[in-house]
Amino acid sequence: MSGTTTAPLRVEIYSLYGDAKPSEAASPSLRGSLPARAVQQCPPVAAASGFGWYVYPPIDFALRWDGQDTEWTLLTENEPTRWRSLAGGYDGKLPDAADELQAAPEQFRGDLDIFDRYGASIPFLDADPRSANTVELVTGVVARTSPGWCLIARGAPNWPAQRGLQLYEGVVETDWYTSLLPTILRLTEAGQVVRFYRNIPLMCLQPVHRSTLEAFRNAELVTGEGLPAWPADVWSDFVALRRRRQDPEIRSSYRREQSRRVRENATYQPIGVVEADQPS
Which fold has domain 11-217? Predict the structure, then answer.
């Protein structure tokens, strides 16, 4: 196995849009919307919710699939302004996207021909002509990570799933792929208007080391169906934990065990958060 999960991690996230909401660390409390009991007494939920960095859409907009073709529109005061068709592989572009390129520093201007195929603008939406309910959204975000590190692009963890929408996940080798991060959306309900907001996370970028991916491909999976297949040590550990869980005098047994391990092992680093973050 090459690489090591202890390699230092640096993540850089840039946007082509000057007024886009910047990426930020994911919120363990879902910016205050996760029940306090889940944050305080269920470290696995808080740890998963706070793992990664949010990516936001550059603007408020909506998509609508009629069962055959997909349309999109900007939102003004939360209402559609004018529906535009994406049929036939038509590219949707934001009205002010070309101005973002004009604001490029002088040393970048000689390279702006890379946007010529989009009419000297930044691509935004592109529906697959073979499957019109599958849309590629370009948020304008480019990410770069330390050597050996990749980013998983997926929906924001534990945010309620939006009706009529599926977000495809992908592992991007951002230690060499310094380009626009792909975001593939699938509209699942004909006639359903799906809204996106520039202040609500669209997806989350989570780091994973190459060595972890390699370890997964070479991992030995052991399964056991029925109690006769359980090893004695697995059963013993299971029983000990369940006894603590069923003791009415013991609460937050998972967090208590984390604390015990910290006290007894100075090198042990618990996964999770101690205090919930504040809603923004």
Answer: Deoxyuridine 5'-Triphosphate Nucleotidohydrolase; Chain A (2.70.40)
* Type and span of the H or E element at 45: helix 43-49
Query: Where do the domains of the chain lie?
Result: 11-217, 227-264
Cα gap 220→224, rounded to integer Å:
13
Task: Answer yes or no: is pLDDT of 118 > 90.
Answer: no
Q: How many residues does the chain have?
A: 280
198-228 exposure pattern, b = at least 16 Cβ within 10 A, e = fewer: bebbbbbbbbebbbeeeeeeeeeeeeeeeee
Strand partners, 85: 71
| Total-model pTM | 0.85
In whole angstroms, what is the distance from residue 140 CA to residue 149 CA? 21
Task: Give the Cβ contact number of residue 193 at 10 Å.
Answer: 16
